[in-house]
Amino acid sequence: MGNKHQHGKGLAEQGLIVSHFGVAVEVLFETGERRMVKVKRNSGHVVGDGVTVLGEVLHRLPRRTELSRRDARGGIHLVAANLDVLGVVLAPGTPSGFLDRAIVAARTAGLAPFVVLNKCDLPEALELGRVIGSVYDGILPLFPLSAVTGAGIEPLRDFLSQGHRGAFVGTTGVGKSSLMNALCPELNLKVGALSDYNWTGRHTTTVSSLHALPGGGELVDTPGFRDFGLVDITVQELAAWFPGFESLQDHRCRFNDCRHRQEPGCAVRDEVTSGGISEERYQTYLVLLGEVEALEEEALRRNWKK
Ligand SMILES: Nc1nc2c(ncn2[C@@H]2O[C@H](COP(=O)(O)OP(=O)(O)OP(=O)(O)O)[C@@H](O)[C@H]2O)c(=O)[nH]1
Ligand SMILES: [Zn+2]
What we know:
- Keywords: Cytoplasm, GTP-binding, Hydrolase, Metal-binding, Nucleotide-binding, Ribosome biogenesis, RNA-binding, rRNA-binding, Zinc.
- With 306 residues, this protein is an alpha/beta fold.
- Helix content is 29%, strand content 22%.
- The chain has three domains: 48 residues, SH3 type barrels (Roll), CATH 2.30.30; 156 residues, 3-Layer(aba) Sandwich (Rossmann fold); 67 residues, Probable gtpase engc, domain 3 (Ribonucleotide Reductase Protein R1, domain 1).
- The longest helix has 23 residues.
């Protein structure tokens, strides 16, 4: 690795940040070469960023999308840039409401969400699959599978191979790591291959890494990015992106900031009356709306600005 490429004077090379080590990033260049480039700590670069590199000077290109999370003190952290899709991983026992929040968060960030129903080898997964299928089938791609047995993983591979760059999110224990390992056989290998570098702290400060899948597509591994903060959505985002309200693309509420509750001229309530939106979906929305409103008030009190 490294020395084959001649750096032409004044010629910047274009690449992609595939790993981040705090004081350095690993850049994958269009030539296929990989090289470590030093960056300032807190320079704001993340995995998925497109860059140009001239010598040791790295310049970030504009981003298409940004995926962020919020920490326990309200600080916002960028997790990855330029993702196209976000896989929301569910398994028996996932708290209800998580999926809707995650879908809204993904859509708000400009990522197309899809659903992975993991642990389908367990009998409890049958009922979850039925419930999820009845609500979300036709709204977004669904992948029932088992990361452990490998059953059902092929359709997900096909989906990702259509040139998609994605990441997974899900509550702890749903099987995100298992899924990453099943999809990226290079993951374990990679840890070993990198160990002969001697950048200080590289093993402990890795934020995330991007992996090309053997059949096409890319996945970003995001250690520490589970459910936390992703589900932190605003009332406006919820009202605009709630799954099941897709028919609203053609109809608009009278008020731009309509919360779809009692406002006059509300297109959502019209759709519920006419059957375009199910009463059940609408009731689920109202419950979530109440929760998001309460969280927003609390955040305002703590002075978390969004
Ligand atoms: N039965 C069954 N168990 C699974 C499956 N996928 C993962 N598991 C198990 O679920 C547990 C959690 O899996 P992980 O892959 O560590 O889950 P995770 O989402 O990465 O968890 P966190 O790192 O805590 O966020 C492990 O014991 C896995 O073996 C599956 O498809 N079927
Ligand atoms: Zn409305």
